[in-house]
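Batch job 17 of 40 flagged for manual review because the log was empty.
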Amino acid sequence: MEIRKDTLVVPRALQNAVEAAAAEEHRSADDVLQDAVERYLRIKRGEKMFSYGEQRARELGLTEEDAHSMTDEYRQVLREEITQGVRSLRAGRTTDGESFMTQMDAELAALERQGR
């Protein structure tokens, strides 16, 4: 496949498939191709993020089981913090976002140092 400025050149069989999909969805072939490329790029970004996460877990000496339990633990912590936040809001007590994020970053760094 070759891209020339604003023109995308694809094999005839693929063009036919794109045109058929576009007609079925009542969209232009350009829209279908743009969506396909955007999805592809999102998948590639996701794969890179996943790969980074796996690498980081290895560096920390975490097993797959550790990662699953951490996820469950972390979700529970988040649920509890959200519940506390809602209670604070209802009681009229608020915290600015910057302070909250600073505290959250510090807590995550502490967990990482503990190897969790």
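Reviewer: the log was empty due to a logging misconfiguration, but the result itself is present. The chain has four helices and two strands. Unflagging and moving on to job 18.
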